[in-house]
Amino acid sequence: MAKRLFDIIVVSLVLLLVSPLMLLGAVGVWLGSKGPILYRATRAGVGGAPFTMYKFRSMHIGSDAGSAITAPGDARVFPFGAFIRKVKIDELPQLINILIGDMSIVGPRPEDVRIVNEHYSDWMRETLDVRPGVTSPGAIFGYLHGDGYLDPDDPEGSYIRRQMPVKLAIERAYLERATLWSDILVCFRTVGAIMMLILGRTPTPGPEIRDAVQRWQ
After folding, report:
1. Beta-bridge partners for 44
2. In the predicted model, is pLDDT for residue 212 greater than 70?
């Protein structure tokens, strides 16, 4: 209950603060590519139940027929879409998902339902015991290091084989020690990670990532 109350209060305040960025995102998508402003993605929520996750659309219409994973330089992404993906403005509509109750501020990033059904092992499915989040330690790892795990010629296959197990090991390890205070720290770490992306800096992964992978993979 404390986590849910925290989510509602913080997101209500954040929506007021980021409304200019959301307006920028909406106008930019509208001008940058014909089609709807929002992208509605079906993702696995608590217990694997599907829900609709909202994002600002960053790809041309019809692009979701291809790979579920976007590789660096993916031709499906239009220029303004690439910008909002880099600075994570495309994720801001998920604040609505939090208010609805589908998501939390901090929790394992929600995965494509097909990938969950076809590729999650038993320990990976344990990350579905909590609400998925807008950010998480695994998401921060993906922001800073995820592209290095992807093969542009096979983005989905390389994601499933290489990046996903590492990311989920980090998420699973975090769930064992997660508190409201640690969630707050993850939020600050996320802001720092986005700033590093904007500045083009990539820190070396810490030992906690290696320890999580060794334990859960």
Report:
1. 50
2. no
Query: Which helix (H) or strand (E) element contains residue 40?
Result: strand 38-44
- The tally of domains found in the chain comes to 1
Instruction: Say if CB 217 and CB 165 are below 8 A apart.
Output: yes
- Residue 203 token pair: 């820190």
- Each residue's pLDDT tens digit, 40-80: 999 999 999 999 999 999 999 887 767 788 878 888 999 99
Q: Which of 156, 147, 71, 152 is CA-nearest to residue 111?
A: 156
- Helices 2-32 and 180-199, axial angle in degrees (round to 10): 20
Instruction: Please say whether the dihedral angle defined by the alpha carbons of residues 125, 203, 194 and 179, taken in this order, is positive or negative.
Output: positive
Cβ count within 10 A of residue 62: 9
Length of the chain: 217
Q: Which amino acid is at 196?
A: M
Q: What angle do CA 152, 56, 112 make, to 5 degrees?
A: 55
Structural Rg of the chain based on CA atoms:
17
Higher pLDDT, 103 or 213: 103
Domain housing 98: 2-216
